[in-house]
Amino acid sequence: MACIYGNIMNIDTTGASQATANQDRLTVNGVAASRKLAETDLARMENYRTVITKVGRAQQMDPAVIAAIIYRESRAGAALEGGWGDHGNAFGLMQVDRRHHTPVGAFDSKQHMTQATEILISFINEIREKFPTWSREQCFKGGISAYNAGVSAVSSYLKIDARTTGRDYSNDVVARAQFYKRMACIYGDIMKVDTTGASEKTAKQDKLTIKGVEASKKLAENDLARMDKYKSVIIKVGKAKQIDPAVIAAIISRESRAGAVLKDGWGDHGNGFGLMQVDKRYHAPTGQWDSELHIIQATEILICFIKEIKAKFPKWTQEQCFKGGISSYNAGAKNVQTYERMDIGTTGDDYANDVVARAQWFKTKGY
């Protein structure tokens, strides 16, 4: 179930203040500091990944936000003594204040995270009532700020953190959440991959008069209603394979228009199978054309190509290898000779660029 309170990736943030950055003696502040702080806690956070995800789904809250609050409040437990922090006033990973709430469960339990997440949600709802003209994402950010300092401390959006600890609470939590969201993919951050978008030839599929990134976005948008039928399984496979679900969605959009161009599950003159068009000439297709098994197989094929590109171009960055693997998914690793011309020889001479642009758009839709 997607987060119903807003898209954390669409929330503006200035990141950590210098006071917060000083916790780890960082010489930088802002978003870069928030990311570094979150990265430091990542190994400890892995201990709680499963329960964080379960609570997020149950409460329809982005697990990355729960993780970010755990980062901020207790450094994933490292700052606690016997499960307590804040001079004995706050309990657990998410620091439930006993002066206002009766803590439940063990300090690192599902019960604790559920209670704390429900407290966060109540603050978001209060902010909505207080600021009815604010957007969904603004209320989301306001609720995060209120989790630290209370609703009464939020007087305006521009000064949302003025009375929070470090004067940066929601900005820091948002930046950490965005980092955690991106770290779910171990192959790179799709939002950092450069792209020229769809070629004119690809754009003509939908009779578009534009090309480039805007065309890719429009093509993806035209597939969204169909794509949403597969959203839960796409996200499930993405998490299991540690690859961005938005990339899986983008390949489904590019390969089969979310199933719209298939005949009995087949495309490419009977050679490509399923939503992600597994080529029967090179692989034995598994599962039904729109099944989890099919999406798993295709995603594993993509991952193999990313690794091939890493071996072929050891000096390329993580994101460059990610893009190269996407290009290879269409035309093979041998076709990738240089970074700048990796798509020459792919269908439409734009495969990776189009998929990346679609993925960046699907990312804004909760994939």
Structure in words:
There is one protein chain. This protein is mainly α. It has helices at residues 18-21, 30-40, 42-45, 49-59, 63-74, 110-130, 136-149, 169-183, 200-203, 213-227, 231-241, 245-256, 292-312, 318-331, 351-363, and strands spanning 84-85, 90-91, 96-97, 266-267, 272-273, 278-279. It has a three-stranded antiparallel sheet. Strands 4-5-6 form a three-stranded antiparallel sheet. It starts with 17 loop residues before the first helix and ends with a helix. The model has no long low-confidence stretch (mean pLDDT 95). Belongs to the glycosyl hydrolase 23 family. This is Lysozyme g. Keywords: Antimicrobial, Bacteriolytic enzyme, Glycosidase, Hydrolase. It catalyses: Hydrolysis of (1->4)-beta-linkages between N-acetylmuramic acid and N-acetyl-D-glucosamine residues in a peptidoglycan and between N-acetyl-D-glucosamine residues in chitodextrins.
